[in-house]
Amino acid sequence: MDKELKKELNIILESSDNSDSPYNRLDDKNLPKVGMKRKPVLKLKDINRLKKIRNQKREEIAQDSVFIPYLYGPQESQEPGGMGGLGM
Known about the structure:
By secondary structure, this protein is an all-alpha fold. The protein has a domain at 40-70. It is 48% helix and 0% strand. It contains two helices and no strands. It has helices at residues 2-14, 44-72. The relative contact order is 0.04.
């Protein structure tokens, strides 16, 4: 086990990224490239607009849930004759 522990320690010590060294801007891999843009910031105005749209959609669905069963619900019984009792 001591040999395995020494191997692991050697691997860890050899592969360390020298975190004690000072910051080098050239080694930084997260620098923005030319042409890259920042992500858009979501503002309170945008959030409120989205809430308003969501509430309108909910109201529309609520209205449809009342109207659609009436429109496509069970039909009233029709009189024999096929015209629904218009008697022409």
